[in-house]
UniProtKB/TrEMBL annotation:
<feature type="binding site">
    <location>
        <position position="133"/>
    </location>
    <ligand>
        <name>substrate</name>
    </ligand>
</feature>
<keyword id="KW-0326">Glycosidase</keyword>
<feature type="binding site">
    <location>
        <position position="310"/>
    </location>
    <ligand>
        <name>substrate</name>
    </ligand>
</feature>
<dbReference type="GO" id="GO:0030245">
    <property type="term" value="P:cellulose catabolic process"/>
</dbReference>
<protein>
    <recommendedName>
        <fullName>Beta-glucosidase</fullName>
        <ecNumber>3.2.1.21</ecNumber>
    </recommendedName>
</protein>
<keyword id="KW-0624">Polysaccharide degradation</keyword>
<dbReference type="GO" id="GO:0008422">
    <property type="term" value="F:beta-glucosidase activity"/>
</dbReference>
<feature type="binding site">
    <location>
        <position position="432"/>
    </location>
    <ligand>
        <name>substrate</name>
    </ligand>
</feature>
<feature type="active site" description="Nucleophile">
    <location>
        <position position="385"/>
    </location>
</feature>
<dbReference type="InterPro" id="IPR017736">
    <property type="entry name" value="Glyco_hydro_1_beta-glucosidase"/>
</dbReference>
<keyword id="KW-0136">Cellulose degradation</keyword>
<dbReference type="InterPro" id="IPR017853">
    <property type="entry name" value="GH"/>
</dbReference>
<feature type="active site" description="Proton donor">
    <location>
        <position position="178"/>
    </location>
</feature>
<dbReference type="GO" id="GO:0005829">
    <property type="term" value="C:cytosol"/>
</dbReference>
<feature type="binding site">
    <location>
        <position position="177"/>
    </location>
    <ligand>
        <name>substrate</name>
    </ligand>
</feature>
<dbReference type="InterPro" id="IPR001360">
    <property type="entry name" value="Glyco_hydro_1"/>
</dbReference>
<comment type="similarity">
    <text>Belongs to the glycosyl hydrolase 1 family.</text>
</comment>
Length: 482
């Protein structure tokens, strides 16, 4: 397996080169690209239910067809090969392989992922599998979902199934993608599936996602060869106070606790931070929630930490009598996802925005990586998602020119390179996303892909950014300028 190997560190004097073994990839998620929602035994996940609920997703869009990757995966792998990708990070649809979230797997569902990984390996592309990218089987949600402790054990059983099914093909495994979104957007603000707005359930979900991760690491380790590598991917918030005031510093501390350290504390350090427990003690009884032995399970060693970054998080304590900013970059809602700190106000870092209204600031990625390297110097890092949505369109000549995305990628890859030069052990970069896709509550209104998808015909058109990224991969270096 070559996806996460000891690297040859770049020369700080170099302004363009990346380490020799740096992994260049792209990423997708099952519900966003696969389609085939009711094919070969797949049953509804919480995102099927959520997207089919009127008013939850823009324009009533669903992932029923999406980019039809389930049927077009061979074409998509050929496209990846043409672009020179070295690795492909995909997620597995839990309800496609274990429809009820319990019991035996459906072989037809497993066979899709066997075919996909075989196709990738034949093309010389390393498969990187994510077990969970937000699509909990609906039957498990009906039984209580992530706020229910048993879901963590069901997740470990599912991890065992997948390790035995694909362990001979896949050597790099990620347990959870962005558990903050699953817990705080799914059960707090309700802008993501399952759409609940229950503060106590949010924190219970966060703990059981942590526990599910730890139990899954144990299951993977028991079933996989010793050469296999395990990880989790976190969307860590690069939190900044708006001013140097003590009140804004405390706002940043609170958001760092509920946005970052609720996961990094138990997973990397074996304990929930004391200030998080204090901030949220009026919402949940942590002594009842965290059982003896939980933290030992959660803090099982991982081989690499996946880091997703799009934009910094700028916060302040609101002025006397002022309300909070409801749209904090995670979708507008009358319910805050920031459980226990819902009075904090959010601000844009600048006015250079993507189509998501997210501020473009690559310095946040450099800071995030170097801070992680300083706090956990022996833990290798991978940038597992980074990218931007813009208002892409096909020209009369049949091309998609996206100079804003090229500029975005150049700046953020340069931030990664500088972080490596500054001592961060960053092993690779996965562009989000390979394809335009179903962008959760935004439906098909936002395009993150390096490859344009015409959803009526399923035609794929590599954008200018895809060709630019292909050149970066081939040269293992950035051009001097965009």
């Amino acid at each position: 397996m070559t996806a996460v190997q000891p690297e040859t560190h770049t020369d700080p004097a170099s302004v363009t080169a990346f380490p020799t073994d740096f992994v260049w990839g792209a990423a997708t998620a099952a519900y966003q690209v696969e389609g085939a929602a009711a094919v070969d035994g797949r049953t509804p996940s919480i995102w099927d239910t959520f997207s089919h609920t009127p008013g939850k997703v823009r324009n009533g869009d669903t992932g029923d067809i999406a980019a039809d990757h389930y049927h077009l995966y061979r074409d998509d792998v050929a496209l990846m090969k043409d672009l020179g990708l070295k690795a492909y990070r995909f997620s597995i649809s839990w309800s496609r392989v274990q429809p009820t979230g319990r019991g035996p797997a459906v072989e037809r569902g497993l066979d899709f992922y066997r075919r996909l990984t075989d196709e990738l390996l034949e093309a010389g592309i390393t498969p990187v599998a994510t077990l969970y990218h937000w699509d909990l089987p609906q039957e498990l949600e009906d039984a209580g979902g992530w706020p229910h402790r048993e879901t963590a054990q069901r997740f470990a059983d599912y991890a065992d199934i997948m390790a035995h099914a694909l362990g001979d093909r896949v050597g790099v495994w990620t347990t959870l993608n962005e558990p903050w979104c699953s817990a705080f957007l799914g059960y707090g603000s309700g802008v993501h599936a399952p759409g609940r707005t229950e503060p106590a359930a949010t924190l219970r979900a966060a703990h059981h996602l942590n526990l599910g991760h730890g139990l899954a690491i144990g299951a993977l380790r028991a079933a996989l060869p010793s050469s296999a590598q395990t990880s989790i991917t976190l969307n860590l918030h690069q939190v900044r106070p708006l001013t140097s005031s003590a009140q804004d510093a405390d706002a940043a501390r609170r958001i760092d606790a509920v946005g970052n350290r609720v996961f990094t504390g138990p997973i990397l350090d074996g304990a929930y931070p004391a200030d998080l427990l204090q901030d949220t003690a009026h919402i949940v009884d942590w002594n009842e929630l965290v059982h003896d032995g939980d933290l030992a399970e959660i803090s099982r060693p991982i081989d690499v930490l996946g880091v997703n970054y799009y934009s910094p998080t700028v916060v302040s304590h609101p002025a006397e009598g002022a309300g909070t900013t409801k749209n904090d970059g995670h979708g507008a809602s009358d319910h805050s996802p920031w459980t226990g700190s819902d009075h904090v106000a959010f601000h844009l870092a600048n006015d250079n925005l993507t189509a998501m209204n997210w501020a473009i600031d690559p310095s946040g990625l450099h800071t995030l990586l170097t801070d992680l390297a300083a706090s956990h110097p022996r833990l290798p890092l991978m940038v597992t998602e980074n990218g931007a949505a813009f208002d892409d369109y096909v020209s009369p000549e049949g091309k998609v020119n996206d100079p804003q995305r090229v500029a975005y990628l150049h700046a953020h890859l340069d931030a990664v390179r500088r972080a490596i030069a500054d001592g961060a052990d960053v092993r690779g970069y996965f562009l989000w996303s390979l394809l335009d896709n179903f962008e959760w509550s935004y439906g098909y209104s936002k395009r993150f892909g390096a490859v344009y998808v015409d959803y009526l015909t399923q035609r794929r058109i590599p954008k200018a950014s895809a060709h630019w990224y292909s050149d970066v991969i081939r040269n293992n270096a950035l051009p001097d300028a965009v």
